[in-house]
Amino acid sequence: MSGSIHVAVLMGGWSNERPVSLMSGNGVADALENCGYRVSRVDMDRNVAQVLTALRPDVVFNALHGVPGEDGSVQGMLDLMGIKYTHSGMVTSVIAIDKELTKQRLVPAGIPMPKGTIVDSESLFSGDPLPRPYVLKPVNEGSSVGVAIVKTDSNYGNPISRDATGPWQEFGSLLAEPFIKGRELTVAVLGDKALCVTELKPKSGFYDFDAKYTDGLTEHVCPAEIPEDTARTMMDMALKAHRLLGCKGASRTDFRWDDELGLDGIFVLETNTQPGMTPLSLVPEQARYVGISYEQLVDMIVKEALA
Question: Is residue 143 annotated as a catalytic residue, yes or no?
Fold first, then answer.
């Protein structure tokens, strides 16, 4: 059946995450061709609606990362065009990319997240919004783009210097959260099943954008070497977040775990509705662990979108 189905793989775009999206998209396109689909590779530009109108695909595989592929913009366009697409819909995408909106959805349902406050970047140059150490991050970017950990001995200055390189130079407002010491873990959800828990051990001390996407900078321990009840709790939380946000296809929920506090030390950081599909990415790795090949993974995601 797949041979008669035309899939347009949407990749690239103009976000900070363009290079990663191109890697994801080309990997997905290769896999879909191996599965027998007819594939068109679309490096998204401002004429994307005209391109898709001319191609007339049966379904779009959304391999974009960041804005506008992850924030509901592309999803809304595809809804208007009547084209089916993979991963989450418009409303879910709008909520999940915004860390404050995500908290408003998940925290009342019993999912623990760090207490945060939105601050004007200008105010950082006169004083700290929270006791150090704390984390500053854009309200609606993914993949640890523009994240800064402000420590007592940080070289950002005290207060933060206007000249110090950090997200305050790029974004007018930022989310400030207490820094949670401990371990970095993540859980992929595919369809309606949490796959497993991976621990991320960055060699530089912080799982930032470079650590995520540069081979050799982060060790992935899959499955994570953690107590069974901790793993089960994280998988339950990830599946609950996936359902509460209304995610489709694959999602990935990231955690910090203060292992000295046991189950009380588990905090959800965010849920990614467009998780990476590169060779280094976590969702394909967890899928492999549970016996799903890369080709089977992309085939399942396309079939769910078509259904």
Answer: yes
DSSP helix/strand/coil, 269: strand
281 is known as an active-site residue: yes
Q: Going by C-beta distance under 8 Å and a sequence separation of 6 or more, which residues neighbour residue 128?
A: 134, 150, 158, 159, 160
Catalytic, out of 21, 93, 143, 251 = 143
Domains in the chain, CATH or no CATH each: 2-87 (3.40.50.20), 96-112+182-291 (3.30.470.20), 117-178 (3.30.1490)
Reported as a single tens digit per residue, the pLDDT across 38-95 is 999 999 999 999 999 999 999 999 999 989 999 999 999 999 999 999 999 999 999 9
Catalytic residue among 15, 17, 88, 141: 17
Q: Given the structure tokens 């793993």, which residue do they identify?
A: 231
**How far apart (Å, rounded) are the C-alpha atoms in residues 144 and 204?**
14
